[in-house]
Amino acid sequence: MQRLTPADDREACALIRDAATAGKSFEISGAGTKRNLGRPVSASVILDLGRLSGVIDYQPEELVFSAKAGTPLVEIEAMLGARNQMLGFEPGDWAPVLGVAAGRQTLAGAIAADVSGPRRVQRGGVRDHVIGCRFINGFGELIRAGGPVIKNVTGFDIPKLMCGAFGTLGVVTELTLRVLPRPVRESTVVLRHCRPEAGLAALIRAAQIPVEATGLAYLPGEALRRLDSANSTSPGQALIRVDGSSAAIAEKIEVLKQEFRLMDLAILGDVETRILFRRIGDGVAFGAEGDLWRLNLPAAAAAPVMAMLGDLLWLADWAGGLVWLQMPATTESAAELRRITAEFGGHASLFRAPAEARRQIPVFEPEPPARANLTKAVKQAFDPKNLFNPGRMFEYL
User: Could you tell me which CATH number the domain at 1-182+367-397 has?
Assistant: First the structure.
């Protein structure tokens, strides 16, 4: 397949206008770490944005920065870390789970795939932190939306639309994000030896009490053994992360100890907490083999849904609002899984599977007709000739 590597967004505009005239389409790529995420793309040319890299502006006192689309996320995190700041949505690195080397994902890739990590329960997801973008639409026009200059020509909240759109609406060339101060300390209260019903109920309760938990995860026995072999006999653990000053953490831990005084507790320090929640966000427990799903559920539904699905490898994040699940991807299993999740008001996305399975099985939850029509209308407004990542999310998108 032909690969084009524009040196700047102006050159990218010209390439896109030429493609529109010639009837070609693009698979948009940065570092390629998420190429196996979503449906296989049906395109004739790879548009490689790897040369569009570098931080454009960073104002630590204003908690905001702008960077080009292909900037490696590790560079951004290092820059922010040097000023004791961080990305509030705590993006994981899914590359190894998708069969790619770690440490290569780009800023635009994380935004396009909506890579929101464990801190989402308290700080929100990707779209809560993106405040501006510069992108090229399907007419080859360069548009800035949000940030210091607003050109909202379509009536859409464009920066938020680009989050989780998997590159199907436009070629993002620059992004502006808010950042957060990095906490002085982090700690985790571990509720040990608890089964899913009790552990997930405890996480829901922890989200309701005034400790501002920044991580709420449940690790069933098998997931726990994969992350920490020393806990080989435990049926599961509930993890409650808190952060702040040393004094604030001490107060929060005391509140949690009192709330869960009838449960077996342990406390993890800063280093253990950072490592553990990073591994949870990265999906490390699931290795690099086997079909993998992500379920978005009402938090209270996680325990009954997993009870119905039976003995499978899984773990829950976001107090049960997100479940990572290893389960074969077949037409029959997908239909049954989606029947169960829909019964509880949730939905399921196929995160990892061979290309043929991702062609045959809807990767993303099939949309009802009214919403599908709205999705098509948005696509038509931004990319009427279907130039960008055709088929990546749905056959019609």
Answer: 3.30.465.10
